[in-house]
Amino acid sequence: MSLEDTTTTKKTNVINLKKQCDHLNEKITDIQDITKERWDNIDKVIDIFKTGIILLIALNLIILFFVLFL
Fold first, then answer.
1. What is the sign of the dihedral through the CA atoms of 35, 36, 37 and 42?
2. How far apart are CA 49 and CA 54, in angstroms?
3. Residue 13 has pLDDT above 70, yes or no
4. pTM metric for this prediction
5. What is the pLDDT of residues 14-36, one digit of tens each?
6. Mean pLDDT in the chain?
């Protein structure tokens, strides 16, 4: 194997590694986007539960008011 062959092989390997790194970076970005979307959805569900709990407490207070004062 000559020096030129070795150099060409190393350059090819470097190019292939760069392609693989770019591909992996794209996959990582996709996974990060999906994870962010899922956490956003979880936050929405938590907000809905908080609102529901607040409404239930308000309803209980209204019922308590009517029971005690009417």
1. positive
2. 9
3. yes
4. 0.64
5. 999 999 999 999 999 999 999 99
6. 93
Burial grade of 36 (CB within 10 A; 0-12, 13-18, 19 or more):
exposed
Q: C-alpha distances in angstroms, 58 versus 30, 36, 45, 61, 69?
A: 42, 33, 20, 5, 16
pLDDT at 1: 60
> Among 8, 31, 28, 32, which Cα is nearest to 20's?
28
CA angle 48, 49, 51 (to 5 degrees): 65
| Amino acid found at 16 | N
DSSP-assigned letter for residue 5: H
